[in-house]
Amino acid sequence: MLGSLDTSKNTTHHENKQQLIYQATADILPLAIAVIPWGILCGSLAIQIGLSPIQAQLMSLLVFAGAAQLASLTLMGGAGALSSIFSSTFVISSRHLLYSAVFREHVQQSSFATRCCTAFFLTDEMFAVTCAYLEKYKSFSHLYAISAGITFYLVWNAATFIGITAGQFIPNIESLGLEFAIAATFIAIVIPAINSFSILMSVLASGISVLILSLMNNEHALIIATFIGMASGFFTASKDEEHE
């Protein structure tokens, strides 16, 4: 009887883990598919600026940061200084400091290997679906987060490979307007997350600010708009209770 009971518990535990992996894959797959044009653009652009196919693929395999990859490739293509490449990618990727601050309390007791995996696979998309899972079930799942991250990682690298292949045979592939996927992906991430007055004000303030500053040709439009959005959300947080 005891042996039968233990087997039943192990089977249930295995099924729960498998179900969690399936759920994570299903949740992030729409966002992963949405960034395929973005991955194709990164792969093809890497080839066009002179990287070898192996170097281009390794960039996605090791760096795994779409916005930072695209920015660094653009600067490399324009013979930008190494300091400019590092500073630009640092600023673009600095948002991950906020993501890690949100996850810190959930992963600080985890093993070093688990924390490294979570950090490596942490993207905007993985953060969004994991936060949605956390809000819905009131618990953080390392298996869910890492499974979602791995799914996105595989799709991103497959898209990069397609771009590398296409970039060798189709000139000026960037003229196809594949960059629309960047805006579409972030819109898909942000809109479902607007569930309070402070978040709405943060989105509106940062969006309007970046448009105005970009029209004024401000070089730091994105950074300034980010701080304006954060400040707007902070100062209107007290209004959330009034709108509940």
Topology, please?
Blueprint: H1 2-34, H2 36-48, H3 53-63, H4 66-77, H5 82-93, H6 95-107, H7 112-120, H8 124-137, H9 142-167, H10 180-193, H11 197-215, H12 221-235
Helix pairs in contact: 1-8, 1-9, 2-3, 2-4, 2-9, 3-9, 4-5, 8-9, 8-10, 11-12
Largest sheet at a glance? none
Bulk shape: globular
The radius of gyration computed from the alpha-carbon positions, rounded to a whole number of angstroms, is 20 Å
- List the quaternary state of the chains: single chain
Order of helical and strand elements: HHHHHHHHHHHH
State the low-pLDDT regions, or none: 1-5
Count every beta strand, where a strand is a DSSP E run of 2 or more residues. 0
Mean pLDDT: 82
- In percent, how much strand structure appears in the residues? under 5%
Counted by DSSP, the helix tally is: 12
Please describe what this structure looks like.
- It contains twelve helices and no strands.
- By secondary structure, it is mainly alpha-helical.
- The chain folds into two domains: 2-191, no CATH class; 194-244, no CATH class.
